[in-house]
Amino acid sequence: MEKEQFLDIVNRAAKKPLTPEELSFMGTIGEAVESAFQADSVTRTKELNDLAVKIDGKIGTFEEGKTVADIVRTMATDLDNLEKKIKRDFTAEDKFKLRAMLEEKLPEMLAARKSNQNWEIEFRAKRGASALMTTATVLTGAVALNNPNVLDDLEVMVIQYPKNFIVDAIGGRQVAKVPQTLRWKEQTTESTDGLGAVSEGATKVLTDKLFVWKTATRAKYAGRIEFTEELAMDMDQLLLQIIDMFEQQVLRTYNTAIQALIVAYATDYTTTELDATFVSPSVSQVIQAGKLWIENNMYEPDIVMLRPGDAALARIAQDKNGMVQYLPDAVAFHGLTPFISTVIAAGKILIGSTQTISEQHSPFILRRGVYGNQFIENEETIIGEIYSVTKLPTVSVNSWVELDIATVKAALTLAI
Q: Beta partners for 189?
């Protein structure tokens, strides 16, 4: 569309002669439209032609009281929006890859420039994917079906894993920024020698309290997945499910690591008043002994972690005649909150007080990008990570105990 054609449209649609100011304004718009038509591609020209029809229609039916200039200013906004929609910006990664390709062609380009000959450069995007997650490998087991009466159940069945010990048991706290080092003060010794009754006028015994700094260092738990652009296009919903599963996988790794820290922190059971008391002690008596051991060290336990099979045995009491009685949780676990998981080692029980330890973690961080040759191979990488720091005070080590079921049962058994 040339400037004169644009002005003809405006003059035909105007219900009254245009003022010199309006004619000047319309001329400027016409020049811009003409320049756009000459500079842009075939696709852009088609869209501008469609917009010109829109301009013609709107000017022909503009509301009473509005000037032609008002209508054209609105059309100028539409042109600007069209420009933004059509333009495609290159990312920093795109620019890096293209620059590398251009550098490879630099001698050829310089030779063509000196000889004034035409030259060309061809960019190719390699479609071959890695052997990680492609459309062909991520979903297998398809068979040919001649029966048209087939319903695809869209629910994805996935492998089941234990609950999150940190969130569901000890109550880890999420923070915006996990400190690199967590530091706290612990009491080490207390001088109490000679304290007692003091006679009138006598000197009071001197006592003191000593403390020491303790620290914990931040840890990071992370992983990555890689997939092809074709997978993202062909199976977008399945990819979303995969990303969610990947997040849970990273969280499980983090959960297992923190749990291992607590197990290593816990003290082994030694002895309590319940030793050599029961003719045939059960798992419930083992839990009772562990709770008493912590209470003897002046702490109040509130959680017990054990495997599903051991939890089932704790709910069963059997007398010497073989009669079975099923116990409610309040009795079987002696007031402790049970956390049942297959993560804990077989034959072990962990009991402790969630008031003496603490954990801080970041939100789950998900990043998406490319590295190496992934840009030209149509592949992407997703990185997931979480930061955590755990406070396990040395002075409170006796607030957690790990029990070996067989060993504690032997200690509780009455010698006959």
A: 210
